[in-house]
Design brief:
Layout: E1 10-17, H1 26-45, E2 50-57, E3 60-67, H2 70-83, E4 89-95, E5 104-109
Antiparallel strand pairs: 1-3, 1-4, 2-3, 4-5
Length: 110
């Protein structure tokens, strides 16, 4: 789904710790891929935006989702995020474009 250019792009960035200092174990990566599927479904069902991908490295994984309202996006994602067992974990809700130095961010521990 595309949003009007006049609508700010908010984001939810979720970070989970993985075992080791690299890309985590194979079973952890498989669990993240399954979580991505569930998050995509939840976001689409709520018409809250889109799941954009993930990045593994440095002993963690970061999940990226974007939409016009970070609160609505996080609300759609939250049940799946809290149910996922990897810890420590947190989400950052960004209210504005990535290149906007005035965009407010809110951290939520999971």
């Amino acid at each position: 789904m595309e949003y009007p250019v006049t609508s700010p792009e908010h984001a939810v960035l979720v970070t989970y710790a993985l075992s080791g200092e690299g890309f985590g174990e194979e079973d952890e990566r498989k669990a993240i891929y399954a979580l991505k599927y569930r998050l995509t479904e939840a976001i689409e069902a709520a018409d809250a935006g889109e799941f954009d991908g993930n990045e593994f490295g440095g002993g963690e994984v970061v999940l990226y989702a974007y939409g016009p309202d970070a609160n609505r996006l996080f609300t759609a994602m939250e049940p799946q995020l809290r149910a996922f067992p990897a810890r420590p974990a947190h989400a950052v809700l960004r209210f504005g474009q990535a290149d906007d130095p005035t965009a407010v961010e809110q951290r939520i521990d999971l």
